[in-house]
Amino acid sequence: MRHQMSFVERHGRGKYLALVALAFLFLNGDPASAQLKKVRLSAPTVAITELPFKIAQHQGFYREQGLDVEIVVIRGAIGVTALVAGSVDYSTASGSIIVAAARGLGVKLVYLISSKPAFDLVAEPRIRSIGQLRGKTVGISSRGGSVDLLTRLMLEKNGVNPDKDLVLLVVGTQEEMMIALRAGRISAALLSPPRQLMLYREGFQNLGFSGDYLSTYMTGGIGVTSEKIKSSPDEVLAFVKGSLKGVEFYKKNRNQAIAMIAKELRISDPVLARQVYDLHAGRLSRNGMEDASWIQGAIEFTKKSLGMADKNVPADQVFDFSFIEKALR
Question: What range defines the domain where residue 240 resides?
């Protein structure tokens, strides 16, 4: 029988291997992308606090660290449940993270976007001071939540008893409270960017910035499980490094950041987009972490909100700033 020459015999082993390699590239795409580690970041909503993470994603800062980051929207408490269950790797729901950590659920905050609350107390046009809220109805998102406690704190500091001098009405989300204010159902509420800026244009009044009353309250950050910190410290450090570059880009590239704010938050007015950026950028954490005094204040505020003021919650149960310290080096 006549010997049939194989493809390798006819074309040579070198050409055959080259063709196999070429086929592999077509089937598997970019070999660099195959080496990236896929991780998921959950965010409670599309808001100004998530913009630095979006920038890190779009500018390729995570890819530089060997990570392929997918950002998914999951409501705060549910997002923490997903984090603990391993459905996501990181969460930006800083308030829910610190609550879960204080309860001992094995999560920690490793990076802070802002170490001050983002809310202004916004009132209907005819009210010019907190004292004038006596006899009125003030909106809150839920009983015992951070907005409730911050509202009570601001009222009490101005001599108004929130349980006797007015009515605290549970309204719901920030959007729902803005609608309730416009409709006259409530006279005031704590609102975050860009909502309060939109209402100021309509004649509503700013009765005060919550950060002037409580400076130990974070807005945005990175939460991760204690288990991942132990099992994948290199990945956590890489994610913090990429996020840090996103924040620094956000701070230093105002025009590009404003363009992304307009796109992501669907703000068609360029003046409003600039105002949102300037307000938010001025409240960002200096280096992504805070000192022991701030940490203790944040824990005490959370314990009060949970009705567990007498419980001992160590700082290292809630915060781990070792990764941001390494990233800053």
Answer: 37-116+217-253+284-328
Print pLDDT tens along the chain (329 aa): 444 444 444 445 444 444 444 343 333 444 445 589 999 999 887 778 889 999 999 999 999 999 999 999 887 678 889 999 999 999 998 888 988 999 999 999 999 998 888 889 999 999 999 999 999 999 998 776 668 888 998 999 999 999 999 999 999 878 889 999 999 999 999 998 888 999 999 999 999 999 899 888 888 899 999 999 999 999 999 999 999 999 999 999 999 999 999 998 889 999 999 999 998 988 888 889 999 999 999 999 888 878 888 899 999 999 999 999 999 98
Report which of 149, 161, 154, 321 is spatially closest to residue 236, judged by C-alpha positions: 321
Residues 122 and 209: their CA atoms lie apart, in Å, by: 9
Task: Give yes or no: residues 221 and 306 share one domain.
Answer: yes
Do 173 and 62 sit in the same domain of this protein? no
Residue with tokens 């992308």: 33
Tokens of 29: 């795409």
Q: For residue 315, give the 3-state DSSP assignment.
A: helix
CA distances from 144 to 45, 55, 101, 306 (A): 21, 34, 17, 7
Helix axes 94-102, 76-85, angle to 10 degrees: 60
Token pair 């970041």: residue: 41
